[in-house]
């Protein structure tokens, strides 16, 4: 009797306790996604009170999440200002793309060498869905599938370190792709540009697969850099015009003041 009573009153085992990730880890993906998808534009200051209210958290977990975003290069924590979304220039974008090209070239080679049938089927399936989305002119679905396509190849290597490195670099690449995709429409040619990659991987021509991936991403890189350089050119021109107008106003005001003094 005593033994059964003792067992009946025992506490739940540790295995039955539900554990949740820390609060800053829960809000981090949402913050990152809003930056990557350009909901918060480059140069925008993030309001801590507003974010605390949005996520229903105190400033402590929010600031932990912001520190992680700063380490990832997505924001800067400026003293007496707060968190500001970074604005990478053309040089930084070019360097990021060089790393991405190297990683995905290696991934394409490894996947072609391994020839894992499930991975090959997934790549072919996603590619066909990309073509269908492009024919429909469904840009949102196309670019979602495009991300799946590249992730599928990288994950297909089975190399955890490569997957982790690729994921981190892709947060920055996604930002620029979203900027480009806001003004670029999708076409059937966009989907067909992946054909050479798929063909080489399926036929297990490893070096051809790597070179096809490099060629494809170099074209993507040129488009992204051209878009950013054009933006920088427009911004510089607008800044120059604003400065010229300010100078003209100052000169006009000075001349008016001098003229009044001469008449007095």
UniProtKB/TrEMBL annotation:
Keyword Metal-binding assigned: no
Gene Ontology molecular function: DNA binding; DNA-binding transcription factor activity
Domain of life, per lineage: Bacteria
One protein family per Pfam: GntR
Keyword Nucleotide-binding tagged: no
Extent of Basic residues compositional bias: 244-264
InterPro entries: GntR_C, TF_FadR/GntR_C, Tscrpt_reg_HTH_GntR, WH-like_DNA-bd_sf, WH_DNA-bd_sf
UniProt keyword terms in alphabetical order: DNA-binding, Transcription, Transcription regulation
Annotated region (Disordered), positions in chain: 235-264
Domain spans labelled HTH gntR-type: 21-88
Protein name listed in UniProt: Transcriptional regulator, GntR family
